[in-house]
Specification:
Blueprint (H helix, E strand, L loop, with lengths): L7 E2 L2 E8 L10 E9 L12 E7 L5 H12 L4 E6 H9 L2 H6 L7 H8 L4 H15 L14 E7 L2 H16 L6 E2 L11 H10 L4 H29 L22 H59 L7
Parallel strand pairs: 2-7
Antiparallel strand pairs: 1-2, 2-3, 3-4, 4-6, 5-6
Helix pairs in contact: 4-8
Length: about 325
């Protein structure tokens, strides 16, 4: 039976899918609509011509679901990958780099960041990986659901695959023999429902030895970063800054420097530099004003001289009377 409803809404092609019943309390299939169009990012990318933008994804969507769905729509080998926008944000918020930054003392963060430019990149990556591996606790969910109405970008094999997908969606409406697409249940995807919630409840409470290991690793990494920051501060205290000056505090150059005194000295130096720049800029503006005034006076003087010459020529010539 052909699909009913609008074929397109704006630039989007409408793809209805049938979601089979998952609970016995409501044993009826549900029709869900996907909205698909060509991917047109604001900043063009090399893969934009062979990608699709899809929105209103089901909350339980995974790459395996869309791979199976597109295989039933246009055949296998066309679908390459999919990127969900909400999962990209989640991965960024829970990235290992952000978790590692939490183990760095706030007072030492700036020093370590400046010092990391001089460290070997491989050494820094090895330390980060070793520290995170011991700190991170297991995830509490075996599957993360999407927010309602989420969007994604689907990457296909080539640009012709995009045309084939859009034509296949249109055929869902035109063909009388078309069978509604059924939302798949891939075997490699862990099921939701009661088993999913039971595993979540179990993962929320890790064993005591796992929790203790994570706390010990975090404390060790925190202390290590503090020691590194203290060594860097001690070494930088005797090194000149960008202007070639060494900040000398009470107790001598090698004595522990007060953080407030160092910040106050830096603030005064910046104020002096700002005042010098302002005075220099005002000096140049004063010169420009004087130059413009001199040019204006010179023009007025020439105009007055020309006017006097013209009046003298008129007096000398007298009144001209043409002959009749």
């Amino acid at each position: 039976m052909p699909s009913t409803g609008p074929l397109k809404i704006g630039d989007f092609s409408v793809l209805p899918i049938s979601i089979p019943p998952v609970v016995t309390s409501y044993p009826k299939p549900i029709t869900h609509h996907l909205y698909v169009r060509r991917n047109t990012p604001k900043v063009p990318t090399p893969n934009a011509s062979r990608s699709l933008f899809v929105t209103n994804c089901p909350i339980d969507s995974t790459e395996a679901h869309f791979r199976t769905l597109f295989a039933s729509l246009v055949g296998a080998g066309r679908f390459e990958s999919i990127t969900f926008e909400s999962r990209k944000d989640y991965a960024h918020k829970s990235s290992p780099q952000q978790l590692l930054e939490a183990a760095v003392p706030a007072s030492a963060s700036r020093l370590l960041q400046a010092h990391s430019k001089k460290r070997k990149h491989s050494e820094s990556e090895d330390d980060s990986a070793a520290g995170l591996e011991a700190i991170l606790l297991p995830q509490t969910f075996t599957r993360h659901l999407l927010p309602s109405g989420s969007s994604a970008v689907i990457l296909l094999a080539d640009a012709s695959s995009v045309e084939q997908v859009l034509k296949a969606i249109a055929r869902q409406y035109s063909s009388k023999k078309s069978i509604p697409l059924i939302w798949p249940s891939p075997p490699q995807v862990k099921p939701l429902g009661a088993p999913w919630l039971k595993s979540h409840n179990r993962l929320r409470y890790p064993p005591a030895h796992v929790l203790q290991q994570s706390v010990d690793a975090f404390s060790s990494l925190f202390s290590q970063r503090e020691r590194e920051a203290a060594e860097i501060a001690k070494r930088l205290r005797s090194q000149p800054d960008e202007d070639g000056f060494v900040t000398v505090t009470r107790g001598g150059r090698n004595a522990p420097a007060s953080k407030n005194e160092a910040e106050e000295a830096k603030r005064k130096m910046l104020e002096r530099e700002s005042k010098k720049k302002e005075e220099l800029a005002n000096f140049y503006r004063f010169q420009l004003r004087e130059k413009k005034k001199a040019e204006q006076g010179e023009l007025l003087k020439r105009f007055d001289e020309d006017r006097k010459k013209l009046e003298a020529m008129r007096v000398k010539r007298g009144k001209f009377v043409p002959e009749t």
